[in-house]
Each structure stands twice: as structure tokens, then as C-alpha cells.
């Protein structure tokens, strides 16, 4: 008697009686007597159309003697099923025990299409699904693809999405696969709450996490879109924030998410157990390595007694110490931090233990996922290479550097066992992202007026890690272009070479009577001395000239003396007519530029060649929105390496941020500078410091310091060679507004001074046939046909302390940072110019 049994889904077949013919289901195990064992060549195949006979036979592996036993038949059946090429596979016994393999092939996919998708492009979905055109059709794969498409939409905040696959039969065992998508509305985060946060307000914690509540401007970003992966990452950000601020026992117990059908969005709640805040009670160093003095690593510790316990400082100390030990020849030294808590005193005694680690070497560094970035660009971020001792601190540093490049969406470095027990293989998994930017920016400020900029930049040019940018600016008072190029690894050293070419034109406006044109070139070298300390060396060479409106340079109309600029006193003494009322000599009625400006105009184009450096110390917790840390810039420029001018300019700027109570942030800003004359060349007015609201708010641009007092002139600001400034500011959030709006207020008090003008006050013209005089020339006995010296620049240089108080509105808007200030001067110079309201900002769209 012959019978068959057909089962699917991986069910086991029943045991077969000896000698009985069998129909084997998918996933079944055949049992037969050795007497019925066959060879591969005796296998008969039925139902195959595309798959070759020998291909199917190849899945059945004979045993010794070329015979097929029951195990080989079972294995062949499973292997055929796992190929995914067949809808059904059956094994029967024919006459004389012959093996008959009957297959039903899966159709071939003619095309894969998507309908109804507007928010996600076809190309992205095609890359995510497993079903491909000209591939084999599988219902299980289609079901998996349906779930994958829905998951992609959920990660983009659309939880109401529905995906319906449709299979369209075609001739010749082919099908078309169409996914019909109903995207639904975006599912956003409606509220974010915190439970158990006693030391930090919910407002402060919302600044830490990446998920934001939805608001009127949410359409400009995606932070309000509910993403479970991002919420989970926010848990870690909260935990790290608490650990950084001394809460060593903190636990973010849960991140609860609940969908609200009425609001059609999610409510996210973080449950926190803070514990106590700890301070550092003691710092000790221990080692088990002979002849190694652990206390010599004290210099590399960033943990100090009495300070708030900071896990990040401990981690950075461990990294620096381990690297230093390696440099001293202890390649396998491992620094492990330990801490003993005193629960009563709320202190932690930190111990750095330096021990001999396992002698493990790096066999290979395998890089995966870099489809565009060259391997050497990634490898140069490592301070270790194949054959070196494995050092976890250096591996962590390399991972951090790769993330900071901003070339990749994700970076993960893991280890795998090598060819022996003392060898490891480093696996660098990367996911690249777009590194090119095209932006159109616009803005307005009370200083520069309306301004627009178009720029194109690439952070990873040609996959070689190069940076290039070109931009064009056109505005009401400022115009120009710039080209920038940066090679971050000059000659394979961690030294950045930058090249800048620029042309700028500043037009005359209500704050200055003259315009300037500048064309320059500047190469620079950047060094990272430490994680918080950097040095930049630069050379600048630029050509500059002054431009004046014609009505400010028209005092050249005395007959017979075309180069003569008469003074008001000379006009009055010569003609007896008020110069403002004279038709022939009335050039003073519309004002004249100051002597230093006219002299610079007569000198024509001036070349400046200067060497300089900037030393920067930065410990800010956030460069864009700092609430804690110190930023210091110290810079010097020496002009006189060739060129037409020489000077030494020194400037320092320091900002200290400190978190106060109730989310208030205090800011102390100190600045100062000195300009020194070098050699015999006089200082130009253009080389002087020019100050206004950048020193003391409430004053106009170029509104502070020495000023020309000629009543018939434009009374230009002359600038000074010395300045100082101090500012105290308290920034506060608007608690009644959602955090995501990005608004906060500020109150401040400023004080400062600018003085000691050392530019030209005379204009010597001895030896010339005519005297070219400036409007500041005074005296009624000047002979217009003689040579001489134009004297008489009368200017104010009083050392008055300027001060003001004011309020500000700071908006971290989607259009870029905006700031509004209203300041009232308290003390000022007699001739200073004020500007109580000031606005500045920009945008990218």
C-alpha cells in the first residue's frame, strides 16, 4: 500500500513503517531502512521549472560509499526549504524505494512598488525591504517587509500608519508586489513630565533630553516626534547629567509612554530616584606594578578634594592616566577607579588603582560601513594600530574622535577574539550620513542692516576628510565673498591647515561716514594641545582702502589752488562770508570727513602683513547654550612682516558661566586689549579698536571713545589703543512658556572704557607746491599758495567709564539665534552716541 502525508510550518512527520512509501512534508524527517538507501543519482525531481535538476540534487550529501542514509535525506529536505525558492517541498518513495522530490517553486517578483507614501520616498523604502524585483517571492518575507515599513513610519512619528501588501499574479509564474500605505497623521509628544526630580527642575531637565514637546514651530524640526529609541537614549542622558552633578546613586527607573487618544499624541514620563549629592572626600593613587610611582599621575587627575563628584571627570582622568602610563612604557597598565561612599558625610573617596592588565595585542582593525569615507581618514583617528598593545582608553578616545567628525550617523567599536588568546580584532562599525550643506541665510541687525548669504560647504570632500566652503554675502551695508579650505591632518600629523581668501566691502552708514574695501588671504595652523586647550597660528595679508561719498570730499574749489582744502576760519577771514552760506566756498555746509580719514584716502591702498596666534581654553558644558564652564580667548597679532603698517595688538576675552538657583544662569564677561606702536610707522585710525555695544550695551556702533570734534565735519569715531570691559548678566527662563519655544530673558550691567587715540593728528606737506588741507585745519593766516603742515585735529579722549543697565530677550529660534536688548546708559562721555535698542539675528532656510 502506498500513501502520502503533506504538512507545513516545520511540523515533524510521523515515523514511517519500514518499507512503506512516504510523502514527506516541509520540515519533516524521513526514516527508512538501510535497505532502501539510494545514491544521489537515483533521486528524481518533479515540478522544477527555473531551478536546475542538479542544483536540487546538490542539497543531498551522500555518506561513505556514496550512499544516502536517512540523515542525509532529512538534511537535504531542510536545506531546500531554507533556500526560500519553493512554496512546497515533498519527498516520496517510488517503486523499489526510489526517492522522488516534488517541488512547487515560488514565483519571481516582477516589480516592487509603493503607493500612498508621501513622507518617505520610494528609494528609502526599497532599500529597507527584503523583497526585490527579479527576486524570489516569499509570503513570509512580504509579511516581514510589511512590519518593517510600518516600523519606519513609527520612527518618523506616524503611529497610525497601515501597510497593505497586494500580490498581482502575472504570466510565467511571476507576480507584482505593491505595498499600499496609509501614512496617517504625525504622532507627536504632547507632554513630558518628570517624577522624583527634587534637585533639578523639570524645565532644566527638558534642556538635557533630545525629545521635545510639540509646539507651534515643531514643523521646522523633528524633536517632538515620538521615537522609542530616542526616549530610551534620553534616559541615559538624564542619568549622565545627574552623575556629572554628584548624584552617584541616581537611577532613571523608567520612561513611561502612554498614548492619549484625545490629544492624539504621547505623554512621556521619566521616573527618577536621585539619591544624595556627593562631594569628593579624598583622592588616592595605588598600584600593584613594581617600580611604578602612582602618585606621579596626580597631575593628570581632574578630580579635586571638596569638589562635586563628577563621573565624567573621573572617566577623563582614567583615560589621561592610562595613556600617560602607556607612554612611560607600561603598555598594559590599566587604571581602574574606585569609590568608597560615606553616606553620613555625603562624600566619596576616589581611588585610582593602576594594575597590570592582560597582555593583549591588536591583530587587525576591520572597518565596515564606510562606503564613501576612505579607510585612512578613519584609521588616523586611532593612536594605536595593528600589532600595538590593546588599550581600552585609546580605543574609547578613537570612538569619540570619530563621532566628533560628524561624518557618521553612528559609530561603534567592538572587539572580537583574534587568532590566539592574546590577540583581539577591533571592529569599527559605521553608518555614513550626508556631509554637504547648501544654505541660504538672511538676517537683520541694527548695525549691519539687512543681510543675505548663500553658501555651499562640504565637511568630507571626496571622502578624504577635507573641508571646503564658498559663500557670497550681500547686504545693505556689507558685501563680499569668502573661500575656505581646511586639511585637518597636515602631512599625517594632527595639525589642521586652513586657507582663507576673502573680499569684504563695508559701506558708509549712519555710524561711520566712510566705507572700506578689504581683500585678503590668511593661512592658519590649528593644534589641539588638550581636550580643553587649543592653539591657532596664523598669517594674514590684506589690502585695504577707504572710500568716501563725494559730498564728503568736495572742499577743493578755490580758483588757482585745486588741491587746497580751506578751513572755515580761512574762508571767513578771506571772504568775510559764513562758509555755510557761501555759494562758492560752501563745501562745509554738508560736512567733511575727519583728518585721519582724509589722510588714509590720500594714501590710497594700504598693505598689512601680520603674524598672530590665538590660545583658547574651553570647559563649557554646551557651546551653543552654555550653563556652566569657562571660555577664554587670548590673541596677539604682530603687523610689520613686510607691508605698510606695523603694530602689536593684544586682546583677551573671558566668559564664565555658572548655574544659579531655579534655572538661573550667571555670566561674568571680562575683556580688554592694547595696541602698541612698533617701529617708525604711525598707527592708522583703521588699526585702532572701535567699540560700541560689543563693549557696553546701550551705545551705538563706534559710539564710544575718542571722537573728532570739528563742528563742520562728520565727527567720526577715531578709536583707541586701549580698552577694557566688564559685564554681569543673569539669564532666566520663562517658566510659563514651553521649554521648546526657546525663549529666555536676561538682565545685565555693563561697564567699560576706550581711550588713548594715537593716530594722525597732523598732515605734513612740506615741499609741495600747494597745500592739501583737511577740514580740521584752523587759523586765518594760512597762505593757500605755500607749503606747510595741516594741524588742528581737535578730539575728545576723556577717560570716562561708560556704564549701562538693561534687559534682553534671547530666542533660540528655528531661524537661528536672535537677541533683543534694551539698555540705558548710566555714565557716558560728552560726545558718545547712544543706541538704547539693539537687535540682531539670522536664519538658514
What does this structure look like?
By secondary structure, the protein is mainly beta. The protein is 14% helix and 39% strand. It has a 16-stranded antiparallel beta barrel. It is elongated and about 125 Å long.
List keywords for this structure.
elongated, 4-stranded mixed sheet, disordered N terminus, 14% helix, mainly beta, 16-stranded antiparallel barrel
Unreliable residue stretches: 1-37, 556-564, 580-586, 765-791
Helix content bin:
10-25%
- Compute the CA-based radius of gyration: 39 Å
Oligomer: single chain
In whole angstroms, how far apart are the ends?
A: 80 Å
Helix/strand-derived class? Answer: mainly beta
Strand order of the largest sheet: 17-18-19-20-21-22-23-24-25-26-27-29-30-34-35-36
Strand content: 35-45%
The overall pLDDT average reads 81
Number of helices: 11
The main sheet comes to:
16 strands, antiparallel, barrel
Number of strands: 36
Q: What is the 3D form?
A: elongated
Short structural description:
This protein is mainly β.
Helices and strands, with pairings:
Elements lengths: L22 E2 L19 E3 L6 H5 L12 H13 L3 E8 L5 E7 L2 E8 L6 H7 L10 H17 L6 E9 L3 E9 L5 E8 L6 H5 L21 H17 L6 E10 L4 E9 L5 E9 L23 H17 L5 E10 L4 E10 L4 E8 L6 H5 L12 H13 L3 E10 L5 E10 L3 E10 L3 E13 L4 E10 L2 E10 L7 E12 L8 E16 L2 E15 L20 H8 L19 H9 L2 E13 L10 E11 L7 E13 L5 E13 L29 E2 L13 E12 L9 E13 L7 E2 L24 E2 L4 E2 L5 E12 L2 E12 L9 E8 L1
Parallel strand pairs: 2-4, 5-7, 8-10, 11-13, 14-16
Antiparallel strand pairs: 1-3, 3-4, 6-7, 9-10, 12-13, 15-16, 17-18, 17-36, 18-19, 19-20, 20-21, 21-22, 22-23, 23-24, 24-25, 25-26, 26-27, 27-29, 28-33, 29-30, 30-34, 31-32, 34-35, 35-36
Amino acid at each position: 500500500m502506498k500513501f502520502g502525508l503533506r504538512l507545513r510550518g516545520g511540523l515533524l512527520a510521523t515515523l514511517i513503517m519500514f518499507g512503506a512509501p512516504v510523502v514527506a512534508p516541509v520540515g519533516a524527517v524521513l526514516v527508512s531502512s538501510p535497505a532502501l538507501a539510494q545514491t544521489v543519482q537515483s533521486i528524481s525531481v518533479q515540478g522544477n521549472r527555473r531551478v536546475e535538476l542538479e542544483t536540487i540534487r546538490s542539497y543531498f550529501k551522500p555518506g561513505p560509499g556514496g550512499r544516502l542514509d536517512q540523515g542525509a535525506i532529512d538534511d537535504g529536505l531542510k536545506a531546500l526549504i531554507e533556500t526560500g525558492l519553493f512554496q512546497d517541498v515533498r519527498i516520496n518513495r517510488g517503486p523499489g524505494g526510489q526517492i522522488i522530490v516534488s517541488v512547487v517553486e515560488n514565483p519571481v517578483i516582477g516589480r516592487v512598488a509603493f503607493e500612498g507614501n508621501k513622507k518617505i520616498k520610494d528609494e528609502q523604502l526599497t532599500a529597507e525591504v527584503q523583497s526585490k524585483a527579479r527576486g524570489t517571492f516569499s509570503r513570509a518575507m512580504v509579511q516581514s517587509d510589511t512590519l518593517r515599513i510600518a516600523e519606519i513610519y513609527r520612527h518618523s512619528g506616524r503611529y497610525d500608519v497601515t501597510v497593505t501588501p497586494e500580490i498581482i499574479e502575472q504570466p510565467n509564474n511571476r507576480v507584482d508586489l505593491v505595498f499600499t500605505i496609509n501614512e496617517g497623521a504625525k504622532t507627536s509628544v504632547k507632554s513630558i513630565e518628570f517624577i522624583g526630580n527634587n534637585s533639578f527642575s523639570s524645565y532644566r531637565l527638558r534642556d538635557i533630553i533630545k525629545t521635545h514637546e510639540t509646539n507651534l514651530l515643531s514643523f521646522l524640526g523633528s524633536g517632538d516626534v515620538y521615537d522609542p529609541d530616542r526616549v530610551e537614549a534620553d534616559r541615559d542622558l538624564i542619568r549622565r547629567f545627574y552623575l556629572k552633578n554628584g548624584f552617584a546613586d541616581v537611577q532613571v527607573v523608567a520612561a513611561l509612554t502612554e498614548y492619549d487618544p484625545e490629544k492624539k499624541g504621547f505623554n512621556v514620563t521619566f521616573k527618577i530616584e536621585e539619591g544624595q549629592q556627593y562631594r569628593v572626600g579624598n583622592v588616592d593613587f595605588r598600584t600593584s606594578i613594581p617600580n611604578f610611582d602612582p602618585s606621579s599621575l596626580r597631575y593628570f587627575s581632574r578630580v579635586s578634594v571638596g569638589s562635586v563628584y563628577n563621573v565624567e571627570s573621573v572617566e577623563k582622568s582614567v583615560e589621561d592616566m592610562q595613556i600617560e602610563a602607556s607612554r612611560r612604557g607600561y603598555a598594559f597598565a590599566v587604571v581602574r577607579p574606585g569609590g568608597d561612599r560615606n553616606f553620613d558625610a555625603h562624600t566619596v573617596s576616589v581611588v585610582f588603582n593602576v594594575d597590570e592588565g592582560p597582555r593583549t595585542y591588536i591583530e587587525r582593525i576591520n572597518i565596515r560601513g564606510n562606503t564613501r569615507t576612505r579607510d585612512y581618514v578613519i584609521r588616523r583617528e586611532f593612536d594605536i594600530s595593528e600589532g600595538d598593545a590593546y588599550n581600552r582608553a585609546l580605543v574609547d578616545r578613537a570612538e569619540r574622535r570619530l563621532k566628533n567628525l560628524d561624518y557618521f550617523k553612528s559609530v561603534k567599536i567592538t572587539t572580537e577574539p583574534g587568532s590566539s588568546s592574546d590577540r583581539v580584532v577591533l571592529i569599527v562599525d559605521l553608518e555614513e550620513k550626508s556631509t554637504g550643506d547648501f544654505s541660504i541665510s538672511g538676517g537683520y541687525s541694527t548695525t549691519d542692516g539687512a543681510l543675505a548669504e548663500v553658501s555651499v560647504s562640504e565637511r568630507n570632500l571626496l571622502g578624504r576628510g577635507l573641508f571646503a566652503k564658498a559663500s557670497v554675502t550681500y547686504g545693505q551695508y556689507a558685501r563680499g565673498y569668502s573661500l575656505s579650505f581646511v586639511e585637518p591632518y597636515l602631512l599625517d600629523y594632527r595639525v589642521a591647515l586652513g586657507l582663507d581668501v576673502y573680499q569684504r566691502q563695508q559701506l558708509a552708514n549712519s555710524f561711520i561716514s566712510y566705507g572700506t574695501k578689504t581683500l585678503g588671504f590668511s593661512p592658519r595652523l590649528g593644534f589641539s594641545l588638550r581636550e580643553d586647550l587649543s592653539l591657532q597660528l596664523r598669517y594674514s595679508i590684506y589690502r585695504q582702502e577707504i572710500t568716501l561719498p563725494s559730498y564728503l570730499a568736495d572742499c577743493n574749489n578755490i580758483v588757482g589752488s585745486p588741491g587746497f582744502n580751506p578751513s572755515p576760519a580761512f574762508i571767513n577771514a578771506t571772504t568775510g562770508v559764513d562758509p555755510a552760506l557761501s555759494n562758492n566756498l560752501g563745501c562745509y555746509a554738508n560736512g567733511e570727513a575727519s583728518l585721519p580719514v582724509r589722510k588714509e584716502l590720500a594714501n590710497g591702498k594700504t598693505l598689512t602683513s601680520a603674524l598672530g596666534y590665538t590660545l583658547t581654553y574651553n570647559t563649557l558644558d554646551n557651546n551653543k547654550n552654555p550653563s556652566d564652564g569657562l571660555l577664554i580667548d587670548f590673541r596677539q597679532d604682530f603687523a610689520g612682516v613686510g607691508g605698510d603698517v606695523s603694530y602689536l595688538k593684544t586682546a583677551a576675552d573671558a566668559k564664565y558661566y555658572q548655574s544659579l538657583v531655579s534655572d538661573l544662569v550667571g555670566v561674568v564677561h571680562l575683556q580688554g586689549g592694547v595696541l602698541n606702536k612698533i617701529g617708525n610707522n604711525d598707527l592708522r585710525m583703521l588699526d585702532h579698536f572701535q567699540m560700541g555695544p560689543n563693549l557696553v550695551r546701550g551705545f551705538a556702533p563706534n559710539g564710544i571713545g575718542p571722537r573728532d570734534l570739528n563742528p563742520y565735519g562728520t565727527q567720526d569715531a577715531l578709536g583707541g589703543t586701549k580698552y577694557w570691559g566688564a559685564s554681569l548678566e543673569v539669564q532666566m527662563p520663562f517658566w510659563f512658556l514651553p521649554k521648546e519655544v526657546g525663549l529666555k530673558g536676561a538682565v545685565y550691567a555693563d561697564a567699560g572704557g576706550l581711550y588713548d587715540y594715537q593716530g594722525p593728528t597732523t598732515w605734513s606737506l612740506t615741499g609741495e607746491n600747494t597745500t592739501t588741507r583737511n577740514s580740521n585745519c584752523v587759523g586765518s593766516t594760512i597762505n593757500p599758495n605755500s607749503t606747510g603742515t595741516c594741524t588742528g585735529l581737535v578730539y575728545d579722549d576723556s577717560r570716562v567709564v561708560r556704564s549701562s543697565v538693561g534687559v534682553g530677550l534671547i530666542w533660540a529660534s528655528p531661524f537661528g539665534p536672535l537677541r533683543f536688548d534694551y539698555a540705558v546708559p548710566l555714565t557716558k562721555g560728552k560726545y558718545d552716541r547712544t543706541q538704547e535698542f539693539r537687535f540682531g539675528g539670522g536664519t538658514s532656510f
